[in-house]
């Protein structure tokens, strides 16, 4: 782990760069709500084995990064671009999951010339969060954690009881480590952001939208407005659906996701 400082706060940054790597811009992976960089571990390892440079930051207030969680998607996108500046990367390949997909999309809309490739995983624009879950995240976090676990993964009929239980246990620990305040802030940011289609209209790089065939949080059908907006403005966009995968594709189908990231763009 590298520790750098950005805007007066420490940033936990995990660099998975192989000794022999391509000259392409590095991948910068943005985690979702109530998570940290560790959700990307298998994906980063898979990309690195194929010669790709990979950077995984913890967003402010998450994991090992200091400060509080940033209040909205645009603030997180600005932070990601400032981090790329601090690291000396004029161009990056940007990939985000769930809330992170909104952050990646917002960053690509703010600075289209700086984004070499864009990958949006488990995306939906807009990304409404039910009032019940928003209230639970604020007032009854254990219930919120349970609800998120219920819908994050493909059914046990697909994954198997033991595998799904393992995923849920790991995800619960991860959310508890971030804390209820972080989850509540992140979910509110997702719910409030309404600029996704406008941001998509400004994207100019090849863009990949990846959905899980068994995703109940952001079903593949919900991605159509985003994909249509990308295509309408002449962006080279492609959509891939990973059969049998739920919202947490990085854990459920890491090899298929890595292959999609490298072959889909």
Strand content of the residues, in percent? 15-25%
What is the assigned CATH homologous superfamily? Alpha/Beta hydrolase fold, catalytic domain
Q: How many helical elements?
A: 12
Indicate the mean pLDDT.
Answer: 96
Helix content: 40-55%
Tally of individual domains: 1
According to CATH, what is the class?
Alpha Beta
Rg is 17 Å
Number of strands: 8
Question: What does this protein look like?
Answer:
One of its GO terms (molecular function) is hydrolase activity. With 265 residues, the chain is an alpha/beta fold. The protein has a single domain, classed as Rossmann fold (3-Layer(aba) Sandwich). The protein contains twelve helices and eight strands. The protein has an eight-stranded mixed beta sheet with strand order 1-2-4-3-5-6-7-8, with helices on both faces. The radius of gyration is 17 Å and the shape is globular.
Produce a short descriptive summary:
With 265 residues, the chain is an alpha/beta fold.
Salient structural properties:
alpha/beta, 265 residues, 12 helices, 17% strand, Rossmann fold, single chain
Secondary-structure blueprint:
Blueprint: E1 2-6, E2 9-15, E3 27-30, H1 41-49, E4 54-57, H2 73-87, E5 92-97, H3 99-110, E6 115-121, H4 131-139, H5 141-152, H6 156-159, H7 161-178, H8 180-192, H9 196-200, E7 207-212, H10 224-232, E8 237-242, H11 249-252, H12 254-263
Parallel strand pairs: 3-4, 3-5, 5-6, 6-7, 7-8
Antiparallel strand pairs: 1-2, 2-4
